């Protein structure tokens, strides 16, 4: 996988331009983010941020404070910052040995004892700024592995300070974790402030100042500022100039295997805390979050609508069942009710009959015209027996009443002439009316 070091050199968010260094080949240049993404898809990046955007400083702490260092650092910085500390992302490097300091012992003789104080390098940047820069690169498909403040990477020592001019900005480093960035016109002011407060800056008089720039004109301009400073006149270090072969000269030191020397663990990596490099599953998850959220919302909506429709349909079904049971009880007031719909269908089937035999409706349909012609005859009750496999006939038994037996017999004769088999039996007299049972069957072909 390609390993790149990059630094944004254009503030245009739509067409951001980056200075880049390809570690394996040592090739360097500058191009827009889209061009880089096309050339090195899914490359691993080390992002550098200008010192003006990401200041750094060294803080001393006692051994007993090491455990709570992460919580203490913001309070150490808060007094010196104009910005709200909550809006900053603060990164710290590995603790490193500091200078000897004296403290008063609590022994009986109250003697002064020496202890070695530790120091930690701290870098801080606006959270929104860092989030914007990292998100832009990750959206383009890059894996931002590390992120450093650029001045901290200058290979300076306490005896040999490095002042590097890039554009109109000077990065100055006077030891591990001791660095700053300043406009070229303010370089002399910065050097003089270090002279007047060396302890606060963690600086000691250097033996030499190494000035670095890409052109001779830039070197001369920076040298003039340095020589005019009170620091040089007071400490009188040797001023050395060096022309750089490229933008990354002196920052990236390539080994024979094409890799860049590892950065000291004392240098804070901004990819920590809330901006820690995501693990593999997080890299897969982040670009899929919105589609998965949308799919989850769609599924949730579908399930909710389905449950709502099911609930409404259940209510309609229960209401319909109650209506069916009410109708059944109107038709069949007595008897066991198990399944009203099924019982009604069974009874309706009995009334309709089937293709093999007759039905009560068919018989009544044939009897009704003859009954209408005999106004003297009335029906009190009827019963119906469907056709059986033995007789294959349907039988309808009528309890009729008429003014005379003659009227009953005439009605029976009309039914026989109409193609039915009708016979009257059990004729009795009830007052001035005659009653009889009339048994009617279909004539089978």
Would you spell out the secondary-structure blueprint of this structure?
Blueprint: E1 3-8, E2 17-22, E3 28-32, H1 33-39, E4 44-49, E5 56-61, H2 69-78, E6 88-92, E7 96-104, E8 112-126, H3 127-139, E9 143-149, E10 160-166, E11 169-173, E12 179-183, H4 187-196, H5 198-201, E13 208-213, H6 216-227, H7 230-235, E14 238-243, H8 280-331, H9 340-352, H10 360-373, E15 378-385, E16 395-402, H11 405-417, E17 420-430, E18 433-442
Parallel strand pairs: 1-4, 4-9, 10-13, 13-14
Antiparallel strand pairs: 1-2, 2-3, 5-8, 6-8, 7-8, 10-11, 11-12, 15-16, 16-18, 17-18
Main location: membrane
Domain GspL periplasmic: 284-441
Pfam families: GspL_C
CA distance, first residue to last residue:
96 Å
Shape call: rod-shaped
Counting DSSP H or I runs of 4 or more residues, the number of helices is: 11
What's the domain count?
A: 3
**What kind of sheet is the major sheet?**
5 strands, mixed
Helix content range of the residues, please? Answer: 25-40%
Gross CATH architecture of the largest domain: 2-Layer Sandwich
Q: Helix and strand succession? A: EEEHEEHEEEHEEEEHHEHHEHHHEEHEE
Question: How confident is the prediction overall: mean pLDDT?
Answer: 83
Number of strands: 18
Largest sheet, spatial ordering of strands:
3-2-1-4-9
CATH class of the largest domain: Alpha Beta
CATH topology of the largest domain: Nucleotidyltransferase, domain 5
Strand composition percent: 25-35%
If you compute it from the alpha carbons, what radius of gyration comes out, rounded to the nearest whole angstrom? 52 Å
Low-confidence spans: pLDDT under 50, at least 5 residues?
Answer: 101-113
Q: Pairing-aware structural class of the strands and helices?
A: alpha+beta
């Amino acid at each position: 996988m390609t390993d790149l070091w990059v630094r944004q050199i254009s503030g245009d968010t739509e067409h951001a331009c980056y200075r880049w260094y390809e570690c394996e080949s040592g090739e360097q240049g500058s191009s827009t983010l889209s061009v880089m993404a096309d050339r090195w898809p899914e490359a691993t990046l080390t992002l550098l941020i200008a010192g003006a955007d990401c200041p750094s400083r060294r803080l001393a702490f006692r051994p007993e404070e090491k455990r709570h260092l992460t919580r203490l650092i913001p309070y150490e910085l808060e007094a010196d910052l104009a910005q709200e500390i909550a809006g900053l992302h603060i990164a710290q490097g590995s603790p490193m040995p500091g200078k000897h300091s004296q403290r008063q012992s609590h022994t009986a003789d109250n003697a002064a004892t020496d202890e070695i104080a530790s120091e930690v390098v701290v870098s801080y940047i606006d959270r929104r700024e860092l989030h914007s820069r990292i998100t832009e690169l990750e959206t383009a498909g890059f894996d931002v592995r590390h992120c450093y403040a650029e001045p901290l990477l200058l290979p300076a020592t306490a005896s040999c300070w490095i002042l590097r001019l890039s554009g109109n900005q000077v990065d100055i480093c006077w030891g591990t974790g001791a660095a700053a960035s300043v406009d070229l016109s303010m370089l002399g002011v910065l050097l003089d402030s270090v002279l007047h407060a060396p302890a606060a800056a963690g600086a000691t008089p250097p033996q030499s100042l190494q000035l670095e720039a890409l052109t001779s004109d830039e070197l001369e301009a920076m040298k003039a500022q340095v020589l005019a400073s009170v620091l040089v006149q007071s400490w009188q270090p040797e001023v050395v100039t060096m022309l750089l072969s490229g933008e990354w000269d002196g920052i990236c030191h390539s080994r024979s295997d094409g890799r860049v020397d590892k950065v000291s663990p004392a240098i804070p990596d901004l990819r920590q805390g809330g901006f820690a490099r995501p693990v593999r599953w997080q890299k897969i998850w982040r670009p899929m979050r919105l589609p998965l959220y949308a799919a989850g919302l769609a599924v949730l909506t579908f399930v909710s609508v389905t449950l709502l429709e099911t609930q409404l349909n259940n209510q309609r079904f229960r209401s319909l069942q109650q209506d069916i049971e009410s109708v059944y009880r109107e038709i069949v007031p007595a008897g066991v009710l198990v399944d009203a719909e099924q019982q009604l269908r069974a009874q309706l089937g009995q009334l309709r009959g089937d293709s093999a035999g007759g039905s009560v409706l068919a018989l009544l349909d044939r009897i009704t015209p003859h009954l209408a012609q005999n106004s003297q005859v009335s029906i009190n009750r009827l019963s119906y027996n469907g056709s059986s496999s033995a007789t294959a006939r349907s039988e309808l038994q009528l309890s009729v009443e008429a003014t005379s037996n003659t009227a009953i017999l005439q009605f029976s004769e009309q039914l026989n002439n109409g193609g039915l088999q009708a016979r009257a039996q059990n004729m009795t007299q009830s007052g001035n009316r005659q009653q009889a049972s009339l048994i009617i069957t279909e004539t089978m072909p």
